[in-house]
């Protein structure tokens, strides 16, 4: 059958016609467009028919697209893989925190001894983001392959600025040094915060493994997640992430850390609500007692 591709938006091109077999998938159509116009690789394409976005993995017949129909094309612009986006985001704090921690005399203009609070906070934050990088490389499977490259800068700001430079500058400063009121913490207090942090990180990792095992490699399969954490909320990974950062906030008592957790939780809350609604819409037998992100509350 013949499908006409109509270019929308800023793409100033005349319509093109593509010949395809009857059982063509959306993936096949995108590859055919790419073959005809090499600039527009599949991840860069957004195809719609009757105002419906064509999803990869489905056939054109499922959208009732017939011979002679016209499919609208929109260029999404240069793309970058989600895996690379996450690697760039988490790399920021991994680079920034050691700079503030080890080059304190150059940054603050004086030399001082780090307090136990500063020392433990440093290693907790480094462990958190190194864990994130390793999970990105070896655990996560992404339902969406790419995102617009321009969004990398916006996404990275949250991590590089808020959890990177802002927290590092205020937490590792001389006002929190050993012997100061800002840096003094009881031994039991520090270890209690570390214990909560470790528990939350292990729990967060466990939920990531559960989510990974739901989706076979190279697929976009969606299933109802069950197991540790998922009995209470749809997104326990976000809940445990919040608990981990809450322990850092309590340990440091830093406004910079509280700012990061508030901004981060707000974004995770929006994501959780969206995922929760999507689960309930897609799966008729989705557990009704689950909340989105906070057990028994929201």
Q: What would the keywords be for this entry?
A:
alpha+beta, 7 strands, Ubiquitin-like (UB roll), five-stranded mixed β-sheet, two-stranded antiparallel sheet, 298 residues
Task: Report on this structure.
With 298 residues, the protein is α+β, with helices and mostly antiparallel strands. The protein has two domains: 2-77, Ubiquitin-like (UB roll) (Roll); 80-282, no CATH class. Helices cover 52% and strands 10% of the residues. The chain is built from eight helices and seven strands. The strands form two sheets. The protein has a five-stranded mixed sheet with strand order 2-1-5-3-4, covered by helices on one side. A two-stranded antiparallel sheet has the order 6-7. The longest helix has 28 residues, at 187-214. Belongs to the steroid 5-alpha reductase family. This is 20964_t:CDS:1. Its main location: endoplasmic reticulum.
> Strand pairing plus helix content: what structural class?
alpha+beta
Number of H- or I-type helical stretches: 8
Cα distance, first to last residue? 49 Å
Domain count: the total is 2
CA-based shape: elongated
Largest sheet: 5 strands, mixed
From N to C, what is the helix and strand string? EEHEEEEHHHEHHHH
Low-confidence stretches: none
Radius of gyration: 24 Å
Report the average pLDDT across residues.
Answer: 93
Bin the helical content.
40-55%
Q: How much of the polypeptide forms β-strand, as a percent range? A: 5-15%
Short characterization:
It is a multi-pass membrane protein. The protein is α+β, with helices and mostly antiparallel strands and 298 residues long.
């Amino acid at each position: 059958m013949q499908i006409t591709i109509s270019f929308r938006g800023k793409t100033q091109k005349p319509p093109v016609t593509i010949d395809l077999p009857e059982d063509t998938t959306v993936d096949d159509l995108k590859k055919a467009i790419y073959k005809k116009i090499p600039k527009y690789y599949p991840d860069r394409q957004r195809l719609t028919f009757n105002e419906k976005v064509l999803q990869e993995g489905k056939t054109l017949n499922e959208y009732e697209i017939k011979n002679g129909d016209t499919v609208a094309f929109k260029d999404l612009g240069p793309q970058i893989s989600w895996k690379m986006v996450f690697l760039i985001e988490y790399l920021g704090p991994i680079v920034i925190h050691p700079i503030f921690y080890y080059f304190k005399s150059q940054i603050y203009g004086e030399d001082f001894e780090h307090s136990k609070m500063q020392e433990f906070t440093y290693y907790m934050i480094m462990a958190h983001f190194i864990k994130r990088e390793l999970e990105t490389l070896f655990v996560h499977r992404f339902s969406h392959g790419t995102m617009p490259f321009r969004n990398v800068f916006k996404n990275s700001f949250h991590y590089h600025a808020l959890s990177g430079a802002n927290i590092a500058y205020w937490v590792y400063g001389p006002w929190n040094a050993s012997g100061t009121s800002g840096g003094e913490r009881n031994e039991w207090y520090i270890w209690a915060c570390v214990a909560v942090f470790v528990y939350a990180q292990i729990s967060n990792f466990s939920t990531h493994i559960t989510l990974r095992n739901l989706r076979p490699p190279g697929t976009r399969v969606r299933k109802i997640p069950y197991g540790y954490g998922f009995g209470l909320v749809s997104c326990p990974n976000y809940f445990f992430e919040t608990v981990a950062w809450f322990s850092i906030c309590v340990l440091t008592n830093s406004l910079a850390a509280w700012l990061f957790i508030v901004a981060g939780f707000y974004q995770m809350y929006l994501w959780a609500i969206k995922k929760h609604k999507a689960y309930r819409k897609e799966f008729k037998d989705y557990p009704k007692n689950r909340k989105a992100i906070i057990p028994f509350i929201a």
